[in-house]
UniProtKB/TrEMBL annotation:
Pfam families: Aminotran_1_2. Its cofactor is pyridoxal 5'-phosphate. Keywords: Aminotransferase, Pyridoxal phosphate, Transferase. Residues 98-467 form the Aminotransferase class I/classII large domain. One of its GO terms (molecular function) is transaminase activity. One of its GO terms (biological process) is L-alanine catabolic process. This is Glutamate pyruvate transaminase. Coiled coil: none annotated. It comes from the Eukaryota. Homodimer. Belongs to the class-I pyridoxal-phosphate-dependent aminotransferase family. Alanine aminotransferase subfamily. CDD domains: AAT_like. Signal peptide: none annotated.
Length: 485
């Protein structure tokens, strides 16, 4: 593409690494789906569907997931502290519980005002509450000085990759399929992604043989492989790693002197087994073998955007560092200082996520009802979608294990492959575009996440309410296969 613009900036002279970055989750299909949404909002009736289902992105509250009452009530006081002048009205007439008011007072004392900057790595009192949460979760102590509040986990990933990547020769092991944040960020940083393939027929688990080969091949080409990314539970695959898988990655990282970046934002979205954190596994391995794993560097990330919280728009998250050099941590602090601090209202939501109402407290009953309802709703829709895929010709899909996604394999008929080629599309892109045009359901082609050559997939969330849209996918698939077989 060329540009004849007289402006100083044009397509030909902007940062080439930005142009090279790709982010399929909000790519062509997402743009087209928003065009359809706008047409429907204008009252147009020429589309073959009445609503757009944004199954392309894990954005729960866009898809009618309701905010948790305790969280929003606390936030309302943080945003408008004058409400505390009328505590009796809040309790008697607005259904605020006393623990809502007490938590809001505590947070206001901790941050002063949500309109003020905090410390660059986050409010100290909130970091301490996160440390206490991590100790309860893992059974091992955590230090608030090793915790950094961020504007969602994505901001934390950006920080860590900026620190790790020194230039084009730096390599980062990335799971394939992967959430495209990682390859896009490495493209912008002009660093080298080192892909390793997950095992589809073993519940999308890590395959240490594949990881080792990818690492060895990259090093043979002169790449300085410095870190390995693990997304657990998985995005886009929905996999949930076993403790054995987690421990094997830690052992490999020790042998190869790799930083572990553990993206654990879906840690409460687990339907099969339970979540195994990298921090707990590492500390247990250090306990079993004193001294052997002391040099392992781990950065683990969490977010308010996922789980049952779903507060994507408030942009809150954190990362915890384990085993990092003090001078490196000082540079990380300097880096986060450049953007001053994470949104303070988001920091407060992180505290609420890590320390929700406990049994016996006034708000617990409603909180537990809402939290459980969201979890069970996600599990029910995941199961329904999985069962629908089982009915579809040429579609294979692992049972829902975790996160918010399913990543089925699709068999695209040869005629459809040829039509896709004529349009300059990959077969899964062609399929996904036809699905959107026929049903209003927006998914993401598997090629947007990476996949083994010769295979086709798509990723869909199971966040949208109801089942009508699932039925429309089944109907579309049958008609698509009949048309192109």
């Amino acid at each position: 593409m060329s540009s004849t613009s007289s402006r100083r900036l044009n397509y030909d002279n902007i940062n080439p690494h930005v142009k090279a970055a790709q982010y399929a989750v909000r790519g062509e299909l997402a743009v087209k789906s928003e065009e359809y949404r706008a047409k429907l909002a204008r009252g147009d009736t020429d589309l073959p569907f009445k609503e757009v289902i944004s199954a392309n992105i894990g954005n729960p509250q866009q898809l009618d997931q309701k905010p948790i009452t305790f969280f929003r009530q606390v936030l309302s006081i943080l945003e408008n502290p004058k409400l505390l002048d009328h505590e009796d009205v809040l309790v008697k007439h607005m259904e605020y519980k006393p623990d809502v008011i007490e938590r809001a007072k505590w947070l206001l004392k901790a941050v002063g005002s949500v309109g003020a900057y905090s410390a660059s790595n986050g409010a100290p009192a909130i970091r301490q509450r996160i440390a206490e949460f991590l100790e309860r979760r893992d059974g091992f102590p955590a230090n608030e000085a090793d915790i950094y509040l961020s504007g969602g986990a994505s901001s934390g990933v950006n920080t860590l990759l900026h620190i790790i990547c020194a230039g084009p020769e730096t390599g980062i092991l990335i799971p394939i399929p992967q959430y495209p944040l990682y390859t896009a960020s490495l493209s912008i940083l002009n660093a080298t992604p080192v892909p390793y393939y997950l095992e589809e027929h073993h519940h999308w688990g890590t395959d240490l043989t594949s990881i080792k080969k990818a690492c060895e091949d990259a090093k043979a080409k002169g790449t300085d492989v410095r870190a390995i990314v693990i997304i657990n539970p998985g995005n886009p695959t929905g996999a949930s790693l076993s403790e054995e898988d987690v421990r094997s990655v830690i052992e490999f990282a020790r042998e190869e002197r790799l930083v572990i970046m553990a993206d654990e934002v879906y840690q409460t979205n687990v339907f099969v087994g339970r979540f195994h954190s990298f921090k707990a596994a590492l500390r247990q391995m250090q306990k079993e073998n004193p001294g052997k794993y002391d040099s392992v560097e781990l950065a683990s990330l969490h977010s308010i955007s996922k789980g049952m919280v779903g507060e994507c728009g408030h942009r809150g998250g954190y990362f915890e560092l384990v085993g990092f050099d003090d001078k490196v941590q000082a540079e990380i602090y300097k880096f986060v200082s450049i953007t001053l601090c994470a949104p303070v209202i988001g920091q407060c939501l992180v505290e609420l996520m890590c320390n929700p109402p406990r049994e016996g407290e006034p708000s617990f009953e409603l909180y537990n009802e809402e939290y459980t309802g969201i979890y069970e709703g996600l599990q029910k829709r995941a199961t329904a979608l999985h069962e629908a895929f089982a009915q579809m010709e040429g579609v294979e899909c692992d049972r829902p294990q975790g996160s918010m996604y399913l990543f089925p394999t699709i068999t695209v008929p040869p005629r459809a492959v040829e039509e896709a080629r004529k349009e300059g599309r990959r077969p899964d892109e062609f399929y996904s575009m036809r699905l959107l045009e026929a049903t209003g359901v927006c998914v993401v082609p598997g090629s947007g996440f990476g996949q083994k050559d010769g295979t086709q997939h798509f990723r869909t969330t199971f966040l949208a309410p109801g089942t009508e849209w699932v039925g429309s996918m089944v109907k579309f698939h049958k008609e698509f296969m009949d048309q192109y077989r």
